[in-house]
Design brief:
Helices cover 40% and strands 18% of the residues. With 250 residues, it is α+β, with helices and mostly antiparallel strands. The protein is globular, with a radius of gyration of 32 Å.
Length: 250
C-alpha cells in the first residue's frame, strides 16, 4: 500500500515537472505565432496606406480647382497626357504642369500653373489666344504657318531667349499635325501689353496674338522662369476633332 502511494506521488511530481518544463516552449510558440500575425497585419496596413498615394483627383480637390474655375475633366486630360510624356522620358522637370483652358473666354483667368508635388497653384492668370481663333473665345485652331491661330495639345517648354517681346520661352509641340509646327511658327510664351484687365472692361476681352499664348508683361518673367526647360504645357480645346486625334488622350 505504501509503495502504491509513493509511486502515485512520484508520477504526480514527474507530471508536474514535465508540465513546468513544457510551458515555456508552448508559451514561446504562442508568442511567436502572435508576432507573425501582428507583422503580417502591419505589412498589410503598410501596403494599404502605400496604395493611397496622391492622385489627380486628390490634387484637384485639395487645391479647390473647381473654385479657381478649372474643369475637372480638363485637369484629368492634362494629367493623362502628362503621365504619357513622363513615360517617354521627355520631361526634365515633372513637378510643374501648365494648363490653358480655351473653353473659357479670354476675360477669365484661364492659365493655371500647378506644382503637382507640392500641391500648390503657382499662377492663375490671363492668357491670349490667336487673333484668327476668335475674339472672346478661341473657337478655331490651326497648325499652319501664318494662320495667326492657336494650336491645342501638349507641349514641352524649351529654352528662354530675348526677342522683340523681351524675355520669351520656346515651345515644342508634341502632337503631329496638331501643334508640331510651333517652332516654325515661332509660337512662344511672351509678355504682351494687350494682356490686361483694362481691355476687358472696355471691350469685354483681352487682346489677341499671332498664335502665341501671350501673358501679362507684369508676370511674364516669373512665369517663364517657373516653367522653363522641360515642363509640360497642355492647351485644352473643347473641339472633339482634337480630342479624338490626340495620341496623348487616346
Amino acid at each position: 500500500m505504501q509503495k502504491r502511494k509513493v509511486k502515485s506521488l512520484y508520477l504526480f511530481i514527474s507530471s508536474l515537472v514535465i508540465g513546468l518544463f513544457s510551458f515555456p516552449f508552448a508559451f514561446a510558440k504562442t508568442v511567436e505565432k502572435r508576432s507573425k500575425q501582428l507583422l503580417s497585419a502591419t505589412a498589410d496596413s503598410a501596403n494599404y496606406f502605400a496604395s493611397l498615394k496622391p492622385t489627380v483627383i486628390s490634387v484637384y480637390d485639395s487645391l479647390h480647382l473647381n473654385i479657381s474655375g478649372i474643369n475637372r475633366k480638363v485637369f484629368e486630360m492634362a494629367e493623362k497626357g502628362y503621365e504619357k510624356i513622363i513615360e517617354e522620358g521627355r520631361l526634365l522637370n515633372d513637378s510643374i504642369v501648365s494648363i490653358i483652358d480655351f473653353s473659357l473666354p479670354s476675360s477669365a483667368k484661364r492659365l493655371y500653373i500647378v506644382d503637382l508635388k507640392n500641391f500648390e497653384i503657382l499662377f492663375n492668370t490671363y492668357v491670349a489666344h490667336g487673333r484668327n481663333s476668335g475674339k472672346e473665345f478661341a473657337k478655331s485652331f490651326s497648325n499652319s504657318e501664318s494662320s495667326f491661330k492657336s494650336s491645342p495639345g501638349f507641349y514641352i517648354t524649351g529654352n528662354m531667349y530675348t526677342g522683340k517681346h523681351g524675355k520669351s520661352l520656346k515651345l515644342e509641340g508634341l502632337e503631329k499635325g496638331i501643334n508640331d509646327n510651333a517652332e516654325k511658327r515661332a509660337v512662344v510664351i511672351h509678355g504682351a501689353d494687350y494682356v490686361n484687365e483694362s481691355l476687358i472692361h472696355s471691350q469685354g476681352y483681352i487682346g489677341r496674338s499671332q498664335g502665341c499664348p501671350a501673358v501679362s508683361p507684369k508676370e511674364s518673367n516669373q512665369i517663364i522662369n517657373t516653367i522653363k526647360e522641360g515642363t509640360c504645357l497642355f492647351i485644352y480645346s473643347p473641339e472633339e476633332s482634337y480630342q479624338s486625334k490626340s495620341v496623348y488622350l487616346n
